[in-house]
Protein 1
Amino acid sequence: MPESREMTMAEALGEALAEELSRDPTVFLMGEDVGRPGGVYNVTKGLQDEFGEERVMDTPISEAGFAGVGVGAALTGMRPVVEIMFNDFMGLAMDQIVNQAAKLRYMTGGQAKVPLVIRTTMGSGRGAAAQHSQSLQAWVAHIPGLKVVMPSTPADAKGLLKSAIRDDNPVIFFEDKMSYKLTGPVPVGEYLIPLGLADVKRIGDDVTLVATSSMVQVALAAADLLAADGIHAEVVDPRTLKPLDKETILKSVMKTGRAVVIDEGYLSYGVTAEIASIIADEAFDYLDAPVKRIGAADVPVPIARPLELAAIPDEAQVVRAVKHLFGPNERSRQGSTLSPAERG
Amino acid sequence: MDRDKDLLRLLYRRMYLIRRFEETAGELYRRGTLLGIVHLYLGEEAVATGVCSALRADDYITSTHRGHGHVLAKGGDPKLLLAELCGKVTGYCRGKGGSMHAADLGLGVLGANGIVGGGFGIATGAALSAKKRRTGQVTVCFFGDGATNQGVFMEVLNMAALWKLPVVYVCENNFLGEYSRYQDVAVTSTPIGARAAAFGLPTAEVDGNDVLAVYDAANSAIARARAGDGPSFIEARTHRLTGHHEGDVGFSRRYRTKEELEEQKRQEPIGRFRSWLLENQALPATEIASIEADVEGHMQEALEFLSQSPAPDVTELWEHVYA
Amino acid sequence: MATEIYMPQLGLTMTEGVVVRWLKTAGQAVSKGEPVLEIETDKVTAELEAPAAGVIAPGQIAEGTRVPIGGVLGYVLAAGESAPVAIPEGAAATGIAAVPASLLPAARPGSPRRAAASPRARRWADEHGIDLAEVTGSGPGGRIVEADVRWYASLPRTAPPEVVRPRSGQASPIARRVADELGVDLGRVQGTGPGGRILEEDVKRTAALTAQAQPVPVAAEGRGEIPPLPFAPGPAGEPLTGIRKVVAERMAHSFATVPHFYLSVEVQAGALVRLREQLLPQVEKNAGVRLTITDLLVRVCAQVLHDVPAFNATWVEGGAGGVLRQADVNIGVAVSLDNGLVVPVIQRADRLTLSEIARRRADLAARARAGKLALQELEGGTFTLSNLGMHRIDSFQAIINTPQSAILAVGRIADRPYVVDGTLSVCSTMHLTLSLDHRLVDGAQGALFMGRIVELIESPHLLLA
């Protein structure tokens, strides 16, 4: 068993960046406040000191401009890691991301390669209000040619960021801002987590909770509450939205017969709709109940605390949704005999 | 001033090739062989030719939706370009990009672009990349007057100046943005170059229909970039002798009168250069004729190549989405 | 309240049917079950029966009308009743959305209820030949879920002496009429309609076959009534109640109806015993319980049943009877209580680690003794293990827990004389006896199965491969 140490998500990401900067001279970072200030969430702290201004560049507030510069640099032999401070600002750079980065390889018949990583933050919960609290992963997951990654733990974050940087495609890497302080074990030494591979974070056999990013913690908390009521939830973390590991998700639902999909994007026309419809389509005959979705309320995120909390999914909401999938005296609700240790 | 004869031959050949290529493309469009929208470079040949002839083979350019001229001026192969315009698998982009996305990465042509201003970021990024890799490569960013009103133009000027990037921004000002005259949609009390000068870039205004003037201006700017002295801006004034795109006949009268068009045709660059060559006895008429014949030969070859080229197999639909 | 005659779903892909011909007209009297009209789908023509006795109401849907599933076609009125509303022509003819909600069956108390079942439940029912009409749902809103169908399937069936006549849900009216005419026993007919529904062509096919072949008495034989006990409990005898009663009935049924045969072996238990010693601390750590030989045997049996899925099967009563392969390996472990025997089931044992098996076995046994097992936990078994080794029993033959196909009886591990390479020595051995249902498996197959069990017991390291 490899040794591991407790780290925060921010530290794990910083370590990934440092390691890749060391390993590959074509890797460099760009973004607002990433250099001298060390990043608004301290992810890139110390990196400019260690690697210099050429490798860790502070940009002006020009999302379209520096995202485009990232594309051009990636097209010509470099591996830029560009930070867009809040994913709400992606709109300013959408042409570069959607019309240029995503499509250059295809439009040039395979001549071009764009190994660009765009790191950006998402998620609400800290009163940042409507234009700094969105989770817009659905926007980019919709576009062919892009890869989309959403880690939920420090260990996953490090392994996935390293893989993203080494991937030859444009990767949009979403970091939940409330999770930067989340701690967890991170293995010592070099390791990579491949893109496109989901992770079962908790084993259970009564219902599958598919959850992304910080919603994984919400799902796990809900699973604890449900277990006390004799419902044992399995939590599946896709980790990468594009390409999506359908197999792991479907295998879980074929076992449990029920699914709830949880994502912090707005409920309508988003990630949950995509995953839920895949389940309903490909695991139809294994479903004992309709597939349910939980997302952020279809409203701009408000600042007042009780309103903000009401807008984003929480464990009580998940528990309610799961319970509605079962009849009051349903035979499926048996006392599972899995011990907490077995459930992992 | 004595000019290198090889350079003069190259300049004439390239302009003539672009002219004949675009005329051929127009013809194919009218016959229905060409796919999609094409924006022809007729009348602007001197700009692409003058600039690209001052570049190394490994220098980069980004182009526009009106990009055939740039591709050919950078040394691109008319066969592969024509096949691409017609969606053949033998084309530059295996028939998947078409006119607006033609590219030859091997020649440093980082692509025509369907988004006005789409090349700004890419060119500036390529320049940043060249600087980091210390290769001495220079990047030229071609764009029209219309693109100078995109916000991202200002963003890249700031960064290029700040980081002293080896990039030359070449504005092909043909005084028209699609169907609108430049003066109707933009401030003209200051020249376009003033926008670049605001960030400290050295700027130049040239007659875009004088290929030697363009070449000289480009040469200085490129040398400056290669020496590590940062970006420059060139405004090359010219005219496009066609519509915005082929087939838009209904619109042309709205922004240009017949008389204006006739006058612009008289100023077209190839005729002017030919006259200059003959008057200054720089190249004999026979040699000019033989260059032209050679170009015709290449165009014939391109048409034959086209007629033998198939469309891509439908299985290619799924290829090249990801590396 | 008037009783609706409505367009039923007769096929999985059916969305609507056409009214072909009314066999009864308005004002005519009908008895329940009497055919009243003919309808047609793109696959089949069928007769619909009167859902109740009474008189056909006026205003029936016209012949030739296309009606979606659930659409009302007419009413049967009892004395004093009147038809609720005239059936809107537009509603029936134009499509499901046009049918007013008030006319749909679910809203009317008098109308026959169609079971809402989940896709998972339907699939399970299809695979196991269960008629969903027989199953009650415990899901939200009374939805039938897989667990409900499994539970229903695991109930023991006591067969009546004569061959079962399928209830109306299982054969179409035409099929029944044709069966009557041709003298075909519907109990022998294999239905090919959805959910095993018997159609006219199925009856005709069976008639043709039966004319050629000897009637096979398999289904009927051995399915007699439970023979009466030679003596009834008299004043001195206690009537059986509760769990004892159920056990008694099941045992008697099994013994009487299942043709048992037995395969016995003596296996060397040394490797298994040593393995247990070695694993004790780890299992204690993983699961907090003490590993037993039974746990190891469950693991072995789970592996063999996984590898030889033909043995993971149950016997299905009803119709012509038959073998039903089960997807999950669910092993029952016999636990003896003061008031009788229970066999809680370790579900999907082939997917559990040894520690998980031990944990479950211990938990199930503890709760069995405390009387706290859920009904669920006694269901769905495909194989049973019974270990009397702790009771000084060398070997025994167990009675199969129907509808399973086998049960393994395990005796005590003891040092016994054993011949190894021609020399008499003393070895730790264990007797195993496998009881098998001869309808499902023959001697050679059983021997192969037993051989595999022996191999894994004597060389347990093979479990890793």
Protein 2
Amino acid sequence: MKKISIYVLVILILTSSCKKVLDVNKDPNNPTDVQEALLLSPIELSVSDQVYAGNASIIVQNFMQTITANQPNPGIWSYQLFNTDFDGDWYNFYVNVLNNLNILNKKAEAGGRYNYAGISKILTAYTLGTATDMWGDIAYSKAFKGSDDFTPAYDKQEDIYKTVQSLLDNGIADINKNSITKPAGDDYFYQGDMTKWKKLAYTLKARYYMHLTKAPGYTAAQQADLALTALSNGMQSNDDDFKFAYSGAAGSENTINLTFSAVSTYILNDTYVEGFKSRNDPRLAKIVKPAKATGLYTGRKVGDPLGDLSKYSYPTDFYAGASSPNYIVNYSEALFIKAEATFIKSGASAAQPVYQDGVKSNLTKLGVASADVNSYLAARGTLTQANAIRLIMEEKSLANFFNIENFTDWRRTGYPAITKVNGALSDIPRRLLYPQSEILTNNQPQLSAKLTDRLWWDVQ
Amino acid sequence: MQIKPLHKKMIMTPVCIIIMVCASFAQTVLKGHVTGPDSQPVVGANVKLKDASSGTTTDVNGNFNIIYAKPVTLVITAIGFKSREVSITNETNIKIELLENITELNDVVVTAIGVKREKRLLTYSTQELKSEELIRAKEPNLINAMDGKVSGVQITSSSGTAGASARIVVRGAISANGNNEALFVVDGVPIDNSETGNIAGGAAGAGSSRLIDIDPNTIESVNVLKGAAATALYGSRGASGAVLITTKSGTANKKAAITFSSDFSFEKPLLPERQTIYGQGTTGIFYNGEDKKTSQSWGPRMDTLIINGKKAPTYDPYSYFRTGTTTNNTLSIGGGNNNSTYFISYSYFNQQGISPKNDFKRHSFFTKYSTNISKNFTTTFQLGYSNSKQDRLPEGASNGPLFVILVQPVSWNPYPVLNPDGSQRLYRFSRNAPLWTLDNISNTAIVNRFLPVTTFNYTATKWLTITERIGADIYTEQDKYTENPSAAIDLKGQIKDQDVNYRQFNHDLIVNASKTFGKFDLNMLLGNNYNSIYTQSTNLTGTGLVVNNFYNVSAGSTLTGSEGHSSQRKIGFYAQANMEYNKFLILSLTGRYDGSSVLYQQKQFYPYGSVAGGVIFSHFLPESVTQVLNFGKVRLSYATVGNDAVGPYSLQTPYILAGRNTNAGYFPFPFQGQPGFLLSSNLGNPYLQNEKLKEFETGLELKFFDNRISFEGSYFNRKSLNGIIPGIQISNTTGYGGTTVNSASIRNKGIELLLTGVPVRSKDFNWDVTVNFTRIRNKVLEINDEKGITQLGRVIKGQPYNIFYGVRYKRNASGQMLIDDSGLPVVDSEQGIVGDANPDWTGGITNTLRYKQFALSFFFDVKMHGDVQNDVESVAFFYGTAKVTANRAPIVVSGVNETTGKPNTIAVDAQTYYQSRQYESSIQDGTYVKLRNVSLSYQLSPSVVKRTPFKNASFTLTGRNLWIYSPHFTGADPEVSSYGSANGNQGIYAFSTPTSRSINLSLKLGF
């Protein structure tokens, strides 16, 4: 009996110390707080990898017939898409990028580190702008509240556009506070050069003003005015390009380079490659590689029987080498925005020199000899009332390789002209589908949108 | 013969007898010795004078003393033996031999917390498998050895890879995302059975279930506790059922018995049938694979193909596989004296798989030593040590060889492997050459594991015992994955090195009191449990290899590393009361109070328990009935079990080291010299509580005709509530990808039947039959109603667990397929449910026939329905290698035209048709009947053995998977789950190593 009471005592002692024994649930693997610089680097990488050149962007390049896969129909190249195809993109945009930008902004504002706050706002504007041009109405004002709102309602696209402009304005205002703390190496894009961030912000303002040239309640002339004003503070040279440099080392390869892998079977589209030939474009050899087996410039036509990968063309190392940069917003785009706005405001002849500057800036960047630049410009002719938008948009899209701006411009202006592919399951898509994850978790009225539906600003 | 010295010993104490004789006038002292039919002493047999209340029990040597006065009848009863009555008049010495009670021999079983109980008094369902049956299966992994034999249990091996994992689910899945596999307990101590051997981003495919570290030869018996009432004492960890393993022990007072057994087996792969008529190419045009490459076999007929004026040769892609071989040698010694027993075993298992570069090797040591420290104090120490090593190549639709081999054109000669410039020689793009991978990719997992258990048993008084059991499960795992650069798939090569340390400590203190009050037998148990699990892993990856043939991470141009720690603890207090009235009425109550470190701090502790009753109704039946129906029992139970089915650190939302995911792998930060963190995508839930399982069970047990037929049937209805769903998807617009909630509910209802019979029992010939049957219906009742979430991948509210969901064909209201104007089925723009992985029922039948020295046993098992996603077939459709693609005539798909509604008459050519097949067409009915095991053995007769140096000797010939009938499945063996034992992988057949058919020869010698 004595023994038993000893055991009972042992049990009692154990009971009283239980709480302490169970207190081992503090995560030893992950920090509970980090400083701004640590957040900025992975956010910037995600902006380049996932917002600019992620899965959604690759799908858009299929729509725009820049690329296609050596696969039979049906597939995304013939517009077979399912809501699940966008789960990853939505996750990357909202969880990886926007929520972390939201946290970065709050942290930076609270700590008075306004350069970080400014960058955070500019990147938020860029990411929201990209998202709304793909999906239309999206969540922002009610988003990022964690368990306080599990089903955030979406904002109207028009409100997202207003948010984008005000984020850019506030971002510029933050930078103008000239706070001492500046990012350095943690800012892959500009290494803390805040002047360049401001130029980017103004260029983006112009970009998003011009998206609304057809939007209900907006006029092309007003938008062109706003864009031109913004551009006066925008990018001034190719050095101002908003680009992400990849080292090309294992694990640090350029995203576009990884897209054209032997496993994905992505190659250039026939429409894209033939375009260079028909324009007699000196950029052909600069952008397109001849097929390994034939030495010819050959794109693949969607719906053709499966071919031999070695008989198709890939992009060159300018855009698609392991250490090529991702040109997210480039100076040429700023010039083409200016050309379009000038054309709207002042006509073709006023737009002509700006348009030519745009073409030149891109050809120079690609290393085209100046004689070839001039003969190409001559061959392309002068802008007229009838051809100005077509020429500006064709050239803009060539300078915006892999950029979803091309899809937006096509929807706004019809250029660069494309026709639906062989075996297409529908007309050419005019938007992306909402992800299945939203259908399962946040049933908003907008989610039933079809690929051929038009966004708010995409008026017929 | 052995008894003689014992008798001498007895006579050595005449003084004692004289004293006794003097002390009790006219009384006689009877000294007795009780043995079994094998002349071994029977320990603990009850010896009573008929009609007297008192009696005695035999000691460890089978001896007893009893005093009697007049001619009387002696009643001897012992568990596992038929009771015997012996008349005595004035004997002083007696030798009594008891006969074994065949049907009752197995009737003491180990229940939760290692408590031994008579099976007839249990109030819940358990099923025991004996050593002999487990060894007969010739499987290195105990889980596979149990396959098809236990009702209510579903076992699925992941693939035919040597050392591959297997999944065991008892009474259906109850957790939406958590672990649904049964808890494994060795001699009272829980052990880890997770699937390991996989490095993230390393070789795709299934790893090993860690139970593989246990040598089946050291197992005495296995008892499966199925329902919550049976496992309630185990608490949380037994919520999905428990498999109790009892290891072998030495026998007291027995000279060392040495047993040597040796197995050798050959394995042949079971491969899917394919077409071999057509060669490489497309639209009937030949591609030679050298300068014209394609992955397809839609080329010309091989019998018409002429190359360089000669008939083209055909090559068998399956020649890649080899005949597997397995050797297994076991040496064990067991014995004991009157104070202690010992058992020592060593075995070496070596399997060379049917896929080259796949092998599994295991050294296992096991020792157990029990001794009586004092009269009332016994202790047992045991230690298991194993060293396991598995080598394998990636499986599945990965960079491994099988994705190519299974669909390789027959016109392609895979040799030479390399081009003159040293690059891979390939017939297609985007994949590695299978033979190249043999020399350039490797994945090795080495595990060193210790399983020590120490048990102290103190018998305080006759009715009170105190047991303290301390056990541990400690292993280190060293994993290494290497992959040379491959231009064919644009990968720059990588080396991954991972070390995992796992430690689990478990303590149980049990106070057990048993007392009889008149017709009441009362048994009370009180206990305390403490369990802690700690894991640590470090991982180093070198990517972009710059030094040839140097397999150290330093060969990588980019080096990344990570470390992880995880710790969780649990404390439990439990009590159990079993009351029996007059051996026919049983009431059992259990209760447990658990605390878990992983839950919300204010609600870390949670209670649960069970109540169960049983009536042995045969007690009331007239003898005329009990002569036929020897035993009848009904039982009823209700139990709740709490469970903390979530990993540690799920309450917080920390920052996580950022990383970059590319098609070349995952690269954690720093990226280009910059460090980086992002907020965790998983929103912590600080208020997490335990989940609950409620189960009602009722059962019927019957024994007929002198126990020659016995039946056991159970019905259960179990439902999980407040189920924890770790990482449940939430709208990403919240800023997070997922969180952890307490909301899932899954119901499983089922019937389990077990019928055993002995149709023939005679001196020379015996025939035993065992039949089991299981039918389970499960349904997901809730995922998260509050947030309106009704689907989690393959788990959908209102549907059975693990359905197949994906792209399907469009059908009209009457279910007819809609066909477009080109003759192809129309694809539905919305995905939907296309199959269900759950079988309608499963069953097994084992027959064992014994004739003199021969024994023949054969075992069939059946799975009725239950869909399989056959990825091999869907890829083979596309590539034109599937068996059906041998017929290349145009196809008129049956269905109606989408626009006209008239029956389709438009023919589509075979290549277009098969190449446009969608997900739905990969779903096949996985029904099978398998002749899983046939075993023929011969035991040398005693007369022959006498002339040898052996005590006994036997030879066994075993065949595994000799026949598989799967009428709707086009692969070879529908019983695989290629991507491992995790919930979401179930029912997927995808380029994993094929399972095999084997012939095993074994020899067993006793010294």
